[in-house]
C-alpha cells in the first residue's frame, strides 16, 4: 500500500444541514464538517452525495477535497493537460490567481464525451490545508455560465480544523461498534479512515487499516451484478497489486444484500504481502463499502474486527 498519508486526495458533506439560504448574501457557506466553503451559485445546495454543492436539475455541482498543506506542490504538478485529459477534461486555460489572499491555480476546460459540458478545477494553498475544488456542468449551454462558476470558486473561504466527533457525525452512516479502532481522518464527507496503533500515517501493513465509504449512487440489484461490482471495485484499488481472491460470496443480512471478499495482495509501494477484506452492504438506493488491510500473521485477530464494524453500520437518514 502506498503511504496512507494526508498528502493523498482521497475517494461523496452530507445531509441538508446547511443551505444557501442560511447565509447572508455574499457570505460563504460551509457544508457539514467541511473546512472549505463558498458562496454557492443560485439554487445550489449542499450535496447529500459528496462534500460540496449541487443542482441536479441543472446537472451541475462543485465538490471539495481537503488535503494537507504539503500536498499543494505535488497536486499542481500533477494537474497536467494530459493527466486531466485522461480524467475526461480538455483543458482550455490555466491561470495563477489569488483567492481570499491565498495562492491558487484555476484550470478551465470542457468535458470530453458525447454529452459534453464544462469543468473547472481550483487548487488553493493555505498554511493549514490544501483545498481542491472541482466544478462541473454537464450537457450543453444550459446550467450555469462560466462567469457564475468562476465567481463561486473564487469566493472560496477556508476555516480551521473541525473536531473529529463533528466530522464523524456528518457522515452518511452511523458506526455502532468501532471494535477498538480509532478514527484518523474523514475524507470527502463520505468516508473515514480507521487504524489501530500509534501512527496516523501508515506505510504498508505496519498497522491494520480500515476504510468505510458510502455512496448514494444506486447500486446493482442482482447478485451476479453485485459480485461483478465488488470484484471490480477491489481490483480498481491502485495501492494493491497481485490481488488473489480467496473467497467471494454474497449473502443476506438485516434484510439487505451483502457481498464479501477476502484476498491476498501485495502493497504496490513496499512489496509487502497483506490480507485484504472488502464487505459491501447494498441497499435499494445506496451502498456502504468497507475495506480492511492487515498483516498476514494478524488476520485471525483483525478480520473479525473489520466485520464487526461493518455489521454495526446503519445509514443516517
Quick rundown:
The chain has 317 residues and is an alpha+beta fold. The protein is built from 6 helices and 18 strands.
Structural class: alpha+beta
Report the helical percentage: 10-25%
pLDDT below 50 for ≥5 consecutive residues: which ranges?
1-25
> Which architecture of the largest domain per CATH?
3-Layer(aba) Sandwich
CATH top level of the largest domain?
Alpha Beta
Main β-sheet, spatial strand arrangement: 2-3-4-8-7-6-5
* Helix-strand topology string: EEEEHHEEEEHEHEEEEHEEEEHE
Number of strands: 18
Percent strand:
35-45%
Cα distance spanning the termini: 34 Å
Q: Please name the CATH topology of the largest domain.
A: Protein Transport Mog1p, Chain A
Mean pLDDT: 87
How big is the Rg? 20 Å
Largest sheet: 7 strands, antiparallel
The total count of helices amounts to 6
Tell me the name of the CATH homologous superfamily of the largest domain.
Answer: Mog1/PsbP, alpha/beta/alpha sandwich
Total of domains = 2
Query: What spatial form do the alpha-carbon principal axes imply?
Result: globular
Amino acid at each position: 500500500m502506498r503511504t496512507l498519508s494526508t498528502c493523498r486526495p482521497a475517494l461523496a458533506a452530507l445531509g441538508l444541514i446547511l443551505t444557501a439560504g442560511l447565509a447572508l448574501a455574499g457570505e460563504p457557506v460551509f457544508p457539514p464538517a467541511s473546512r472549505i466553503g463558498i458562496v454557492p451559485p443560485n439554487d445550489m445546495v449542499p450535496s447529500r452525495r459528496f462534500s460540496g454543492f449541487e443542482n441536479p436539475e441543472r446537472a451541475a455541482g462543485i465538490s471539495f477535497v481537503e488535503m494537507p498543506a504539503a500536498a499543494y506542490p505535488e497536486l499542481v504538478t500533477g494537474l497536467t493537460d494530459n493527466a486531466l485529459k485522461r480524467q475526461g477534461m480538455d483543458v482550455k486555460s490555466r491561470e495563477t490567481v489569488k483567492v481570499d489572499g491565498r495562492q491558487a491555480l484555476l484550470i478551465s476546460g470542457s468535458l470530453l464525451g458525447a454529452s459534453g459540458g464544462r469543468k473547472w478545477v481550483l487548487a488553493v494553498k493555505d498554511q493549514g490545508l490544501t483545498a481542491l475544488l472541482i466544478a462541473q456542468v454537464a450537457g450543453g449551454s444550459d446550467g450555469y455560465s462560466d462567469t457564475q462558476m468562476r465567481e463561486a470558486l473564487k469566493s472560496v473561504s477556508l476555516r480551521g480544523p473541525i473536531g473529529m466527533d463533528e466530522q464523524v457525525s456528518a457522515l452518511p452512516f452511523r458506526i455502532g461498534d468501532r471494535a477498538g479502532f480509532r478514527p484518523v481522518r474523514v475524507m470527502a464527507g463520505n468516508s473515514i479512515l480507521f487504524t489501530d496503533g500509534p501512527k496516523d500515517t501508515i506505510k504498508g501493513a505496519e498497522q491494520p487499516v480500515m476504510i468505510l465509504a458510502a455512496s448514494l449512487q444506486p447500486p446493482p440489484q442482482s447478485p451476479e451484478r453485485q459480485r461483478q461490482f465488488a470484484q471490480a471495485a477491489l481490483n480498481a484499488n491502485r495501492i494493491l497489486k497481485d490481488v488473489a481472491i480467496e473467497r467471494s460470496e454474497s449473502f443476506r443480512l438485516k434484510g439487505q444484500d451483502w457481498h464479501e471478499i477476502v484476498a491476498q495482495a501485495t502493497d504496490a509501494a513496499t512489496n509487502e504481502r497483506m490480507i485484504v477484506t472488502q464487505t459491501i452492504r447494498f441497499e435499494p438506493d445506496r451502498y456502504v463499502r468497507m475495506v480492511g488491510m492487515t498483516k498476514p500473521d494478524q488476520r485471525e485477530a483483525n478480520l473479525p474486527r473489520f466485520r464487526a464494524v461493518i455489521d454495526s453500520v446503519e445509514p443516517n437518514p
